[in-house]
Design goal:
Blueprint lengths: L6 H17 L1 E7 L6 E6 L2 H9 L13 E8 L2 H14 L2 H10 L7
Antiparallel strand pairs: 1-2, 1-3
C-alpha cells in the first residue's frame, strides 16, 4: 500500500530535488540533419534546452535544419560544464567533434 508523506518529509524531498537539479549539468552536441553542422552547448535542464533549440527559440541554432542530439555528458556543476563547452568551442575542429561523437564521450584531458 502507498505510504503517506508528512509535510516535513515532503519539504525535505523537494530540497534534495532542488539541490540535485542545481548540481546536475550537461554539455551537449547537436547536429544538423542536412549539412551535418554541429552546435555545442551546456545547460542544467537538458530536456527544456532541447525543446528551445527544436522550436527555434534559440538564436544561435535557428538556422540549423532539424538539429538532433548526438551526444550529452553530465557534469557535477554548470560551471564545470561551461568550462568544457568553452574548451570545445575554442577548438573549432570538426574532426575533433566528430571523434567525440563517435567515441560517445568527451575526454576531460583535452
Amino acid at each position: 500500500p502507498p505510504t503517506s508523506v508528512g509535510a516535513s518529509e515532503l519539504v525535505h524531498h523537494k530540497r534534495w530535488f532542488l539541490i540535485l537539479w542545481i548540481l546536475m549539468a550537461w554539455v551537449y552536441i547537436l547536429q544538423e540533419a542536412q549539412e551535418g553542422r554541429y552546435y555545442i552547448g551546456s545547460t542544467n535542464d537538458l530536456e527544456h534546452r532541447l525543446k528551445q533549440h527544436q522550436s527555434g527559440h534559440t538564436y544561435t541554432t535557428r538556422r540549423l535544419n532539424n538539429p538532433s542530439l548526438v551526444l550529452s555528458q553530465e557534469y557535477e556543476s554548470l560551471g564545470e560544464a561551461r568550462k568544457i563547452e568553452m574548451r570545445l568551442k575554442k577548438l573549432k575542429r570538426r574532426d575533433y567533434i566528430e571523434r567525440i561523437v563517435k567515441d560517445g564521450f568527451i575526454h576531460t584531458s583535452m
